[in-house]
Design brief:
The protein is an alpha+beta fold. It has 23 helices and 23 strands.
């Protein structure tokens, strides 16, 4: 231990005496280690940190799917929930969830709350106890008895001032009184982060009809596996159940529809595709750190030349080779730990920036922080980095010839040997290759993102203001009441100064909400037995919605005010649906129904509009059917869409005023422009691209610095040789060509190796690309040219200095 502390004290003296070298090395390492720490904190917060529930590894999410009709993952039906819950040898408990909205009244102004209705097993399944009160009881989870609520911590704090006596108090929601029975802790955000309260789901007998409701997948289902039951065993049990139900209910699950039931661990379900993007970013910062280590290793090799005499003397005095190596590695590790400490400071700033600038839909964004695991990671990475960049210089220095070093006096290491030059050249090649891989990956993502934002969404998002309303059924129980409210409201909004058109829809494009779909029947067309029925996304719209969004009309007409409840029922379809189910035909005038294929009611196709990217810009379009709001029975929740002549947000207060004029207790929420929705839909892609581009830029700078350092050192070491050559008549152009040529040979070797590695590595990120191949030749060529140009500049600067060597001065001091 005493020797260890001596090594540390000696290391600190050495580093202090060479402040220039120490500063450069620490900054390079801090950049690499800091970037790794920041990204690992994201990986730790999103992927590694357990969810704040009991035994999260045993909690799974149950989904159904209809792959043939483009529904790879949807909820479950109430009858399927009952059947799955009966698998007592597999699942310890099950629960279902459904999103809901509540208008809180009785305060200064009405406020909309994000509610979730749950079955009574929900809280017990997740194993999180309330900080006040209790969970929902089974007897409260019944129709007519479901007037109890559990509050989220945030709402309890914000709206009820953290009242400790809140339990038992009445709260007016949607015009009905609910009793507060519990308050959940702040950490409870599962399964939906933006939840303000929970109420009993209270499934009715009609909702659980084993036949009629079998195809109505509207519930989000959670299940807890029994101890010792794996996810694979649970999936096997569900496969058997799905096969049995498909045979028992062939009308609901035709053989060719691709129906099935599957489960995923809850963390995997929450994280989704984020895991792949984070893996790419973590690999990217790993490459940045390797480049930084190669840079520092080159610096260490250069500095070792001035320490050969010191090492030779220590060896002559009895220090063994392992003792020398240990001392040199101690220096490297301490240098790396200092860089890690500074990198940790960079990471603290970086994590704060990631939380502020990260997309709102990044799962578990609030969990990203610097904790003990992140500190341990930083320490481990620093130690590994120290050993990584220090091993080659330490072995090289310990291999020096004692007699030669002492015989040469102060010049023991002045001229680097061939072996050392080869190592430094190999490090440069490695730096360039790693930078090439990272730059290609960044280039591909940038091109992919460019292609993504070039996709036309199918509407004009500019100057469009949106806001959502949810009319409580307790007050607006009948369809004519709902229709009258929206008709009157849209008429008032349309008369406001600055408004071009005002409409409404049950699901805004790119908003992630209102994505309903269903099967339908075309009159006169009998599906082949076993084949799936036609299927389409469904939207309920008010007149002028298409004009407000500027969705082009291709044929026929738009939905109009004349398409009222008593008028013949109509529907407008998009061109994707027309081409899918009426290829080479004219759908106008054809009749469709979602009800009895013999009796209807039928809707007549009166118009065909252009396709709209409803789900995402990079998702293949699915056919859509647009129904008039006045002819739809269940459309209490709608989004207003208002096209303005100027800045749309300036009309938000006036529109809210028109809502309040009709119903003072009706709040509006989610006030956004369509430009915001469009921007948010690609926010995660933009975030990944920006981070990867930043890391690629750092890698390019580090590689250029490394090339410059090697060439500069080479010129310094060859000053005497260059002086002789120039004295013998060598031209400056010859010297410039030779120095740049040697540097570019290393660079081109690195570029070639990097191209091969990039062609292999980028195939792993093909799922993250849109509209561009993982081996896109244009990207590879452009990156190779840019990297070569930067490298040539890094070679040219020391080469230019070499041409200015004065032969007389160079020979005088040799």
């Amino acid at each position: 231990m005493e020797i260890f502390w001596k090594d540390i004290r000696y290391t600190l003296r050495i580093l202090r005496s060479h402040l220039g070298f120490t500063t450069v090395a620490v900054i390079a390492l801090a950049l690499g280690i800091g970037a790794n720490t920041a990204i690992f904190s994201v990986v730790n917060g999103v992927l590694l940190r357990p969810l704040p529930i009991a035994d999260p590894d045993r909690v799974v999410v149950v989904h159904e799917r209809f792959t043939v009709i483009g529904l790879p993952s949807i909820g479950v039906s109430a009858p399927d929930f009952v059947d799955i819950g009966a698998l007592k040898d597999v699942f310890e408990s099950t629960a279902v969830v459904s999103g809901d909205n509540y208008n809180l009244t009785g305060a200064d102004k009405p406020e909309r709350l994000n509610g979730v209705t749950v079955t009574s097993e929900f809280f017990q399944l997740l194993g999180v106890k309330p900080i006040l009160g209790r969970w929902l009881l089974p007897e409260e989870d019944k129709p007519g008895a479901n007037r109890s609520i559990v509050l989220a911590h945030g709402v309890w704090k914000r709206l009820f001032a953290s009242d400790p006596n809140i339990i038992g108090k009445q709260v007016s929601l949607n015009g009905q009184n609910f009793a507060v029975v519990g308050v959940m802790p702040a950490s409870f955000i599962v399964p939906f982060a933006r939840t303000d309260l929970w109420t009993p789901l209270a499934l009715t007998q009609s909702q659980m009809d084993p036949v009629a409701e079998r195809g109505h997948q509207w519930l989000f289902m959670l299940a807890r596996l029994k101890p010792g039951v794996s996810v694979e065993k649970g999936q096997s049990a569900l496969n058997i159940l799905a096969k049995r139900n498909a045979e028992k209910y062939p009308n609901n699950f035709p053989a060719q529809i691709g129906w099935g039931i599957f489960i995923t661990p809850i963390l995997q379900d929450i994280v989704g595709n984020t895991e792949r993007a984070l893996a790419v970013l973590l690999a990217a910062v790993g490459l940045v750190l390797l480049i930084a280590c190669a840079n520092v290793a080159n610096l260490m090799l250069a500095r070792a030349s001035s320490r050969y005499r010191e090492i030779a003397i220590r060896t002559a005095l009895g220090a063994g080779r392992m003792r020398i190596i240990r001392q040199l590695l101690t220096e490297c590790v301490i240098l790396a730990l200092i860089g890690g400490g500074l990198g940790l400071l960079f990471a603290v700033w970086g994590v704060d920036a990631l939380r502020r600038l990260g997309p709102a839909n990044l799962p578990r964004l609030a969990d990203i922080t610097i904790d003990g695991w992140v500190l341990g990671f930083t320490f481990a990475v620093s130690c590994v980095a120290g050993l990584l960049f220090g091993l080659a210089p330490a072995l090289q220095s310990a291999r020096s010839n004692v007699h030669e070093s002492l015989k040469e006096g102060g010049r023991g290491g002045a001229t680097a040997g061939t072996h050392r030059q080869r190592i430094r050249g190999l490090l440069v090649v490695s730096e360039v290759a790693l930078a090439m891989v990272l730059l290609v990956a960044a280039g591909l993502l940038i091109r992919s993102f460019t292609r993504l934002i070039e996709v036309h969404p199918g509407f004009d998002p500019h100057n469009v203001l949106t806001m959502q309303l949810s009319l409580p059924q307790s007050k607006y129980a009948k369809a004519p009441q709902v229709a009258a409210f929206y008709e009157q409201l849209l008429e008032r909004i349309a008369s406001l100064p600055g408004v071009e058109a005002a409409g409404a829809t049950s699901g805004l494009p790119l908003s992630g909400s209102g994505q309903s779909s269903g099967s339908f029947t075309i009159q006169g067309r009998v599906p082949t037995k076993g084949d799936p029925a036609p299927h389409a996304d469904q939207r309920i719209i008010a007149p002028d919605y298409f004009r407000a969004m500027k969705i082009p009309l291709l044929r026929g007409r738009y939905i109009s005010i004349s398409d009222g409840a008593s008028a013949p029922q109509v529907v407008v379809i998009d061109d994707v649906l027309a081409k899918t189910y009426w290829p080479g035909q004219d759908p106008l005038g054809r009749k469709v129904t979602q009800s009895d294929p013999q009796k209807g009611p039928f809707q007549t196709v009166v118009g065909i509009v252009a396709n709209v990217q409803h789900r995402a810009l990079d998702v293949a379009p699915k056919g859509v059917m647009y129904y008039p709001h006045a002819q739809s029975a269940a459309a209490n929740m709608m989004s207003l869409v208002v096209r303005t002549r100027g800045e749309p947000t300036t009309l938000a207060a006036a529109i809210r005023g028109e809502v309040q004029a009709i119903d003072p207790n009706q709040p509006v929420y989610e006030i956004k422009t369509m430009d915001q929705y469009l921007t948010e839909s690609v926010a995660a892609n933009r975030f990944s691209v920006q981070l990867l581009a930043l890391f690629a830029g750092v890698a390019l700078v580090l590689a250029a610095v490394g090339i410059y350092g090697v060439m500069s050192y080479s010129v310094t070491q060859k000053t005497h040789e260059i002086g002789i050559r120039m004295a013998l008549g060598a031209r400056q152009a010859d010297v410039l060509r030779e120095v740049v040529g040697k540097g570019m040979c290393l660079v081109l070797a690195g570029v070639g190796a990097g191209l091969v590695c990039a062609a292999i590595v980028t195939r792993l990120m093909s799922s993250l690309l849109f509209g561009v191949s993982a081996t896109d030749p244009l990207t590879f060529a452009a990156v190779a040219i840019v990297l070569s140009a930067v490298a040539m500049l890094a070679c040219y600067v020391p080469a230019r200095r070499a041409t200015r060597v004065d032969p007389v001065v160079a020979l005088r001091y040799e």
